[in-house]
Fold each of these.
Amino acid sequence: MLCALLRAAGGGAHAQTLDSAALHGNAFGTLGGVYQNSRGVAFRRDTGQGRGARAGRIDLNLYLLGDALDVGYAYLTVRPPPEVYGILATAEFDGADVTDSRALGAALMRLRAFGGPMPFQFATADGSIVNLSHNAVFGLSADCLNGHWETRLAVVRLSELSATPFAPLAAGLEATAVPQAGMLARSLLHTPQATYAAEAGTHYTGSHLRATAMLVRFDSHHPVGPNENTGDVLLGGRVRNVTPFIVFSMSENFGQAQPTDLPALPVFAPLIAGAAQAQTSFQITQRELSLGARYDFAPHMDCKVQLDQVWFAHSALIFDTNVPPHRDSMTVASLAIDFAF
């Protein structure tokens, strides 16, 4: 029934031209479900997802998918690989950008500079939300579009201008008068807390072939920030209305948590645990192999199935629900219907 209604709505919208229509509307959406087989952890799309869905406009321009990240119909898989796209849960900002586009032979070159305030939230293991609202972003990106190929290089600087979320922990560490704990406290309170992200990626879209390769590095100068090398490779081939695909993605943490040097006494246990939790909240060492298929069964509508095998050593992209996981891997099965009209 949903498909029939959407097709009817889409047909009505296209029955009139833009010149003759007094009112023209467009919409997109995804209906889907996910099942995973590992007790003690719960699969999620990114670090901002506490429970349920996520929605928003995407404009950071770090990733190849760009502002199509939440438009499921615009890309091949059920979801973008969380090992690459899941670290930055919020990719929208309020600001300005300047773009210069020009032809270079048969190619189109596009240079973009952008910046502005950027609110950011991430969910902890118990589903609560930590709000880091005083952020600023500045970035540069260069795109080359040549025939079926699109290539992007981008560098982004993210600055957290307030250390308010870490003030109680830092005060407790400083009060212990232990030198190492004091150093960690001052590091937590240091502002601005800068994280740099750099991306290099290329994408091919042909009539029967889709391919993507991308590398992204996150390098933070703050003990809480992400320090990851991430990447993914995708290959898909279309046969009539069906496009099978395979994806491999990974994220490898290279950051190290600073010790507090506090003695293992009950009175210090909350500070030791809090310092460890804060510094590992963005540590991600995870690999994923995905197999699936997309079926375009109607104009601007598709159905996708996907099976993911995920291996993780330490991952902020899954939930530890205070039940020890019985394995270091999980299998995730997903089904989605996307539409755009």
Amino acid sequence: MKVPFRTWPGRLLVRPWLLGFVPINAATAGFGVVLPLLILITLHDSWADVAIAATLFNAAVILSSVAWGHLADRYPIRRTFLVVNYAGYAGLYALLAHVGSVVELYAVYAVIGAIAPAGASASNLLILEKFTESERAGAFASFQEMSMIGSVIGLLVGYFWTLENDALLTLLYVLAALALASAVAVWFGVRDARRTLTTAHVARHPESLFSRLRPVLSFQLPIPFFPHRPKIRPTPVARFRRWAREELHHELPLIMVASFLFNLSANLFNISYTPYLYAAGLAAASIFLVNLSNNLTQTIVFPLTGGLANRIGADRLVQRSTYVRAIGYLATAGFTLYALSRTVAFGGNVVVYAVLGGAIAVYTTASSLMLFRGLTGRDAGSLLGVNSALGGGAAVAGAGLAAILSVFGSYRLVFLVSGGILLASLPLWAAATVAYGRRGHVPAASGVVGGDRPTVAEPAAKAH
């Protein structure tokens, strides 16, 4: 069975209106760096406050994801949801320029988290509805490219804006203008499709599923995705244990637990990383450049990951990229052992964070393929709900753990714990490969499902 999966379109832009997603990704990527710097530099608060803000944001994202998914199914007005999302960002970014305390920032940032899933659901369904089956692979690949190009632009804007001074409050107005530009572009450039689909269709299309599982560059976490509304019952733990027993001989539980550990580690590291860079003496402009190295490497490596998965195999790529990420975390911990000059600290972190960016691009593609092949022929909606719940739990737990570890004031401890958690996930990925093989399959490459020979997806049909 061939799994069509593309990470590079036949041409970069399959529809002109996809350009409307560039400014919003520039705005959110820049904001992802501005927010912790706003707490540390402008409000003169601490690393613990950054972690608390992230905890509240992640909790709001998880709780609102279910509601936005339900609304997307009930009201097929994708353009309106996107405009609400992007215009909401614009207003809230501008509002943040006037906050006077970290408590006020907590409240505004939580609201940003509450509206974040609105755009994720609407954009995926918009592409599914506006493109035919043969065009969707190229469309989603182009959508991802607009995201990455926008993120690079946003970080460059932040770098040049703060190069001479730490003008973070005025930078928020620039980011708000970028978000508003996307809202205007979507309102005038996009029309809702005549046919309507539901969020459940996302689970059945690999490129759409991949775009939901891939971490959003601006927030460094995937927006949780629930194709079906979770049923509230009094025995959730018992139901989960019963499901785990039923799936005991399947690789999916192993993949989900390994992904949970990966996401837990990544959130713990990412939330603490900008405060660490600031504590190391780097200026705001330099911190933007360090983040740029990560996103730029993702932009370069990401289009190559589909071909790598076909040649090397998703299973091997997951393990190797996880190992590289762990080494990167431990290398960052090593930086804390020495009193490095600003120049050396900047150069070392640029290199390490760039490597981490390449590793996450490879990991996300490979792990998504492993998950998708395990979902084939099963109740993908319910299983993805479990996976999203675990991912959301990892985001909140990572932020909470960062807040707890900040009490000890040791970035070294955080980075060592992050690397240790990642290394602990490696045996689970290996066990998932073994479990898949025991079911009679040959996990030689990402295109193999059910023991078929690996295949590379055919180019998507030319979009008109």
